[in-house]
Amino acid sequence: MKKNLSKYGNSFAVLIDKPILELLNITPTTELKISTDGNRIIIEPIRAESEIGKVSSNQNTQKSFEKITQQYKDALDRLSKN
Asked: What average pLDDT does range 59-77 have in this prediction?
């Protein structure tokens, strides 16, 4: 996805599409950490300790995610090392 900067007062802004915000569970009140690695701008939500690993506010969805991740933990670990 390509984006251009938009003028916002004396600054510039990047608009983030709603599907991406929903996927990352980012709301207008979510604090964001903005950093760089020297080549890229990195924007990530700051999560409370209790929200780390949480993919959904829907309890059934969250439980399904946890069950699947536990069931396929070994395979996911192997994939993450490649």
From this structure: 88
